[in-house]
Amino acid sequence: MSFIQELSTLADSFPTIEVEYEDLIGMPFQSGGRVAAGDAGTDCAGVVLEIYRRAGLGLPDPGNDGAAIFTFASLLESVADATALFDIVNIRRESNHLAVLVQYGTILSATRSQGVYAAQLKNYRRLAGIEFWRVKDACLP
Which domains does the chain have, with CATH numbers? Predict the structure, then answer.
């Protein structure tokens, strides 16, 4: 099954699926770490990938190259704000720090200093350079 076909199977439920994420909070930061691989920690891209995996939607893994996170950019569209579950937030463009909306107004991410954490999106909206992305409707039927 192709990646686009996998997206298509979630057309009706993808925006409203809720996933458990509380068990990730407090996990240590590990550059290139991936929860699904059984690593002891994860990075911010790993958090996004894990939340999508738990929702039944795999995204391409950019590996340990922060700039490669944009390899799946053709599946995403820029939106004005993160308002739908699983919207991806690029908090600081220059360092490609990613987070994912797991509840209305709540994002999940990971940093070296905090490990995996949940935060209120409103605390980040005022930052310069913040971007919001969503899986394109064109990828869904």
Answer: 3-139 (3.90.1720.10)
